[in-house]
Amino acid sequence: MAWSAVVWQSPSPCCGRCPSASEIMHSSLRLSLTWLHTWAGLLLGSVLFVIFWMGSLTVFDREIDRWMQPGTRLVAPTTPLALDHSVVPIAQVLAAGSSQWGVNLPTERAPQLRFFYRDGGGQTITRAIDSRSGMLIPDQGSRAGTGFFFPFHFSLHIQWRDLGYWIVGVAGMAMLVLLVSGIIIHKKIFIEFFLFRPRKQLPRASLDLHNLTGVLALPFHFVITLSGLIIFMGIYFPQAQVGAYGMGEQAKQQYTREAFGNYKRPRAGRMNHLASLDAMLAEAERQWPGGQASSLRVWHPGDTNAYVEVTRSYANDVTMHLDRLTFDGQSGALLQRFVGAPVMKAQRFISGMHFIQFDHWGIRCLYFFAGLSGCVMIATGLFFWLESRRVRHAKKGLAGVRVVEALTVGSVSGIMIATLR
Questions:
Q1: Which single residue of 31, 196, 274, 275 has CA 20 to 30 Å from 363?
Q2: Virtual CA dihedral for 172, 173, 175, 176, nearest 10 degrees?
Q3: With contact defined as beta carbons under 8 Å apart, do 87 and 103 qualify?
Q4: Which residue has the higher pLDDT, 121 or 319?
Q5: Is 11's pLDDT higher than 50?
Q6: CA distance linking residue 113 with residue 333, whole number of Å
Q7: Model confidence over 24-82: pLDDT tens digits?
């Protein structure tokens, strides 16, 4: 019986064009991250543009205040104003019956005093005082940069259940995802940094500008986004506080006392005159060699148990430190001196990098243009998606382009026009 021979032949050698397993894996990863990058940008790109736009304006919030509130365009005083003869009489009239009132001292960027107090409904009312004459400045009718742009940047002015903070937090996480995925999906991202072809078609030019602004300020975008999330860690990650101190009002008070040095004592119910605030400021500056006070707050004014908090200025420091002195309101004696613990110093250094409240015009301008580059990066990413899919969606009868186009027009051009108004 004849058996046919079965000859096994090995496959022919690879031609060199077949992708390797690692290349297939990396290609699959890039496709997955491209999908994630696209949808994260589409869903939260409009919110991110608003956050970056308002954050850029907030870099010059004090200067915007002076522009939008003409009555506050003052010359910085050469000598400090006596608070005992100017602020205290105003407080006795405006803040009569209030549980607390205080004043922000004048600076080069904000040369007027800012008097604030709590009204009967718990709302904080702020009035400007001429730092030279001690007279109240008429209400300017605008909340300006510090009253509108600044809180809009991190809360969207949505106070219900801290919803605004959570929306901004989700957008911040999406921004980190966009930055990391953007680096991975672009094989030649640093080469593309040197490519900008404005004469090409709009999709190509938009993508070039998107890559250019993304790489140019990549460290800033990453640090400013991450630091923004760290600043509000108490809202986004309250389990850290609960794990260290436990739950309940007493645990919360202990955390506040150890982290921020809050001093509290109840009202005595007996009337008494307030000791000299000017003497307290002089003692505070003696306790802080080379330092100056930035604000002063009076608790339980008019009461025997009144106390006064004096906070140190961080105009010359990156760290928004928590140095605070607490004085007895009746005798003027020093009750407490608080300096933040190392963990809080680290957190406040990160806060200082984000809020840039220190006086340095060069770095302030760099922050401003880096923030605007973030706006351009987000806007051009949306433009690229729109223009690259407009024809295809029109042929298929899809409404995706129209929806994204409406969101883009409303968030990009709409927010800029609304700002000018």
A1: 196
A2: 130
A3: yes
A4: 319
A5: no
A6: 25
A7: 555 687 888 888 998 999 999 999 999 999 999 999 999 999 999 999 988 877 888 89
**pLDDT tens digit string along 186-207?**
766 666 666 656 666 666 778 8
Please state, in angstroms and rounded to a whole number, the distance separating the CA atoms of residues 382 and 380: 5
The rounded distance, in Å, linking the Cα atoms of 35 and 256 is 43
The amino acid at residue 367 is Y
Residue 247 is encoded by which pair of tokens? 């739950």
Encoding tokens for residue 384?
């690229």
Task: Calculate ∠ Cα 195-416-154, nearest 5°.
Answer: 95
Q: Quick check: 353 and 318 in contact, CB under 8 A?
A: yes
Percent of the chain beyond pLDDT 90? 49
Most confident option among 197-211, 221-235, 381-395: 221-235
